[in-house]
Write a structure and sequence with these properties.
The structure is a homotetramer. With about 130 residues, chain A is α+β, with helices and mostly antiparallel strands. The first copy, chain A, has a single domain (about 1-130), classed as Hotdog Thioesterase (Thiol Ester Dehydrase, Chain A). Chain A is built from 2 helices and 6 strands; from the N terminus they run βαβββββα. Chain A has helices spanning about 20-40, 115-130; strands at about 1-5, 45-55, 65-75, 80-90, 95-105, 110. In chain A, strands 1, 2, 3, 4, 5 and 6 form a 6-stranded antiparallel sheet that branches. The radius of gyration of chain A is 15 Å and the shape is globular. At the A-D interface, helix 1 and strand 2 of A face helix 1 and strand 2 of D.
């Protein structure tokens, strides 16, 4: 799934490139779109973050249009992995890539829970669609 | 009431100075400290913002230590005004100043409410302490 | 000029609505689009902020699609005023409005300068187009 | 090296805990302090980020005081690794931990360079001090 990123001036730091922490916010934007596309759900997310990582490959300066590919990389019992690639949309130059692991979470009970069957099916289908 | 601000690298933009929107976040930090000092309350704020304004007087570059004075400028029935002055703490050079108006708010009922008597007393006392 | 805002999950605070400081970032996004549309310039902005203000009219919850109208409200010798209205794009409910004053600035010389004639013409035309 | 974190209200998201991306900003605050302590340098950083990762261990709610330990985990020819642990400072409960890899970078020439000898010495000494 590809989405366009709308960089904000405040995303850039004194070096004139996107600040390193902002990539996790970009990943979050991707999760939002991917989650809605997969589940049709618009309310607050029923999962919690376990891990995230970013590899910074090249600099994104102010004015560079960015796009992000988000894919489901793995599905476990309670958790799953999303992978992200952010590119300069003009020439597909790789800017950054990363992964996040998140787990289904019952915020009222404050504990992790298995991924519901219908969501698992969508996540799994998203993997297969790529293969 | 004076507090020290702990600028973050991500507060600075491509021009090397604090981004204009970040001053409202600094004001919010000031409100947090002032609110706790006045009321002793640590939970989520029982008020909502009505207005805010900032006047940018001089630039704050990376490395400049900042301090903020926050004062109660006015107390109304439901709302009150906080005023802020942000300075270079080395020489008191004025960097920015502003005001915010906020109103007591019942988030469950989703409506504004009068300022409780004990909070009004503290806010009023804060004005008088300055005079 | 109307633009769509792409709210980010991190724009929302513990109350579930857009944080008060984020509106200045939304205004900045509007300036970016308006500046490019008026001048055709894509490089870093040759102006600096003098003042900004926000009036918070109603809450924007997670999931509410936002749009912003940005207009030129006034043109002076060195400075000009942009006015902003942020609405729920589904029903035009007003969420927030505000103004910013900015001045043409020579960052190398560190001083304000008159608005160049061709930019003044575009800014003035933008006012007349509204009348 | 331990530093106190000054959480901001805007760091918290709709779930009432520190947003996942903010931890990279906390790490950045730690780098700032560690870099100054090690090198005595206050100007803009002469390095660039290669990688970062965060493991989210427990939630940090609004009001929880946070502290961070930052240590040098590894020193290579051009790059080095900083490791971070963020805890609830009242009881040392682990909230999040992570690592960043950064490389010395000549921003004018736009290429990585070896770590200067005197900085290497300080970074290496920081590792030995922990052993």
């Amino acid at each position: 799934m590809r989405i366009l990123i709308d960089p904000r001036y405040s995303d850039y730091d004194t070096r004139g490139h996107v600040n390193n922490a902002v990539y996790l916010t970009y990943f979050e934007i991707g999760r939002h779109h991917a989650w809605r596309a997969l589940t049709g759900l618009a309310e607050d997310y029923p999962f919690i973050m376990l891990e995230s990582s970013v590899r910074y490959v090249s600099q994104a300066k102010w004015g560079v249009p960015l796009a992000m590919d988000i894919t489901v990389a793995e599905v476990r019992t309670k958790a799953w992995v999303w992978a992200y690639r952010i590119v300069d949309s003009r020439d597909e130059r790789l800017v950054a890539e990363g992964r996040t692991v998140q787990v289904m979470f019952d915020y009222d009970a404050q504990r992790s829970v298995p991924i519901p069957a219908h969501i698992r099916e969508q996540l799994t289908r998203a993997i297969e669609a790529r293969e």
